[in-house]
Fold this sequence. Notes:
Layout: E1 8-11, E2 20-24, H1 35-41, E3 47-50, E4 54-56, E5 59-61, E6 65-67, E7 70-71, H2 73-93, E8 101-106, H3 108-119, E9 126-130, E10 148-154, H4 162-174, E11 178-184, H5 192-204
Amino acid sequence: MTDLGFVHRFLQGRDNESPVLLLLHGTGGDENDLIPLGRELLPGARILSLRGNVLENGRPRFFRRLAEGVFDLEDLKRRTDELARFVESARRQYRLEESRLIAIGYSNGANIAASLILRCPQHLSAAVLFRAMVPFTPDAVLDLGGIPIFLSAGKSDSIIPAENTRRLSDIFETGGARVSIHWHNGGHELGPDDVDAARQWIAQQSFVPDR
């Protein structure tokens, strides 16, 4: 679908008591990329999967960057606000007003999810961020209301130093978020251990129904 400001897919699940997964792909991905991952992380959940509105050499992203790891902060803010408006509209469109929303993001998608948490924390109930980095340094961290956040980082990631992951965790915790970090032995790519750790973490959250 192309309405609500983003090309996206909404998939009904078999479990309307579970949270809705907001899937946010990495650079060059689209609204289909993370659907298998979402189904693996929380089987039966409803899925809301987006395609980024920015193109970099023809590859979709969620916001512009000036160089590897150097973000266009004005565009990041504008695109984060755009994502927040989408979430509000999608809740009405798909009758999700009472549903909890978990962001599942990889790389660029994880970064805009982190920005959404720091700017508009009321929109998410939890987040699973694979290979996220600090999107921007806030002047003051908002009250994040104890939101649970799972960070999965690569020990040998050539794009995101481990210190950046720790700094992102510190920023979240300053706002009162409950952060868990999983360290993958490889680099920026995802491994089976990332998925297993994230699935176990989601299952432990109090708002996920027992199966």
